[in-house]
Amino acid sequence: MKRWKVFCNDDLSLKKDALAELELIADVSYFSAKQDVLIKNIHDYDAYYASAHVQANREILDNAKNLKVIATPSTGVDHIDVQYAKEKNIDVINIAKEIDLLNGFTATAEHAWGLLLACVRQLPAAFDCAKNGYWARQRFTGFQLYNKTLGIIGLGRLGKMMASFGNGFNMNVLGYDVLKKDIEGVKQVSLDELLITSDVITVHIHSTEENNGFISKDKFKKMKKGIVLINTSRGAVIDENALLENLNSGHVSAAGLDVINGEWDNNLYDHALVKYSRKHNNLIITPHIAGATIESIIGSRVFVAKKLADYIKQKSNS
User: Fold this and answer.
1) Which of 103, 105, 107, 193 is deepest in the core (most CB within 10 A)?
2) What is the pTM of this model?
């Protein structure tokens, strides 16, 4: 039986033997996570173990003459042109529906809560002052979360975790979801009610064509003046031009983002939100690290390696 060739450009530095089970049945080659490296080498491989830092776009897929499957150790697949892969009969493996696995990963929700606290207490700006010897207590008056209203858009796994954190801080927790959910400590309401009444809004919806620009200019208008907005979903779910307008006006008092639209651009220094954050203290951006903990990184990579190995075994025996 011919051994499959697997192209891997994911970062396995935390667990170098994460693909050990896959290496038993396939020839795995390791490359750096760069777009030009992928397009130059992918043509000869049967499977692609994907890095989320590289786009598997139409150009890549057209060049992948032998490719049968893409495996990504992530819930999101916006780094893969899934529709075009389907047209080319390339299967896509991810962990979006691996509920038992994902229930043990709390990293993204914890990071979202960290962004929330950093926003309401202006922690990065306060630290900048302190480390420069400026004890500027009078500049950094925040607000406490006790008895404030937390609005959660998307009551899936992460939304439920955020609700438990909100309950722990004695907040009034509202939730919006397209499905009816019965979650202890959460009052499920219409989207309009959530937008109008929340003091803090956190976004946990999937990046789909329908959700592109979901947090729109009109939705910003419905939010309370002084709203704090947190997004660890995907950058595309927020109309970033509208966000900038509302940050500038103060209608949004602060935003904490772990994701921005166009994360794969070569020149993120000039991204509109990044430029704004250099001159204003009411926008905090982290480089898509919410899920980047030792537990989640190792767990997801080992799991997907085994899943890809099972896929190859099945296809080889069919």
Assistant:
1) 105
2) 0.88
